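step 4 of 6: structure.
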Amino acid sequence: MAKLESTLKNMLLSLGAIALVCGLLLAVVNALTEKRIAKVNADKTSRAIAQVLPAFAGEPVDTLVLLDGRQFNVHKAMMGDSIVGYAVEAVSAGFGGPINMMVGFTSDGEICSTAVISHSETPGLGAKITEEGSHFRTQFAHRNPAEYRLSVTKDGGDVDAITASTITSRAFTAAVRQAYNVYLAARGEETDAVSSASPQVGEGGTNEAN
Amino acid sequence: MKPIDLIKKGIIKDNPTFVLVLGMCPTLGTTTSALNGMGMGLATLVVLTLSNIVISATARFIPDKVRIPSYIVIISAFVTIIQLLMQAYLPSLYETLGLFIPLIVVNCIVLGRAEAFANKNTMLDSACDGLGIGLGFTLSLTVIGLIRELLGSGTLFGMNLWNGDGILVFILAPGAFLVLGLLMALFNKLTQGRI
């Protein structure tokens, strides 16, 4: 079985054929797993929402909030007609990579709870942010960022950092702070929309007519 | 060589970690716990065996001058398939190994076996070689992970053995080098003169 000679035609044909077959194979596997991967990710998000908010009914309402030129996912949870709270997705740069978080706020502005969706912090050090029930995690619960300074004690705030993981603790706290700002913006937008609803309709109408 | 000897050879004589010293990046990077090491080893085993089989079957249709890009395309296709399947069916393992899965493509073990073995041997032999080397890699990574996890966080496959912290350095990068070096010395001592 002599090997194919390395002529231009042979090289083009064989490498082209291999690339084509591999491409087709990947397309098939992608089509087969796409739905499931989307479901796994959606499950992860809804689990995180349930974890950071008090009990609510039905599906949370998802909205996009624009703050400082970035988009944030905000999930508003309802119980009957009243708002139970907002779960805000936030991200910040940790020690090993981005820390993706979900932060829940009750309707009166308190942090309800936090959840880490994904992170790449050092196991045994920064990875302690995932330990539910640890002092670092529980210190955020039921605090109102309006009076609770969201930065680590080293930086003059009220948050006790994890020993030997200041960078991770800073990033975690920054994500909570960011989530709070998004939460304020999300709540602000809604009250704005209600209070200035009627003049906006009039303006919009004339603009559209022009 | 008989298939069983090929498999044994991959575990002992050609052990990728302690003898060939290949694929050090995932070896040092993923072995913070026994489970992570084992997951990485098994993912590599699957990719290695499949790519060995396919490369052995197609080697004579691949002209010499484009063999490396051809192998890489085949290997990366398998890695991407494993990655997608893992994401869909083993999301928790995918989360811990995340970044290292795509890096299997550039693991020298996989390309090394394609170049050194699969492209001049039969499909069955190549499959056994991939299986053996893959098992050797998996066992080595599991042992390194086991020791690092035990000393570093005081757990065994995630089970808490004692309360409190372990010796932190074993979880960090220096601990990976220390454990790997000591195990390599031990491996050489035990197999001295016999392989």
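step 5 of 6: annotate
 - The interface with chain B takes residues 1-7, 10-11, 14-15, 18-19, 22, 25-26, 29-30, 33, 36-37, 40, 44, 118, 120, 122-125, 164 of chain A (CB under 8 Å).
 - Strands of chain A lie at 57-67, 70-79, 82-93, 98-106, 111-118.
step 6 of 6: archive
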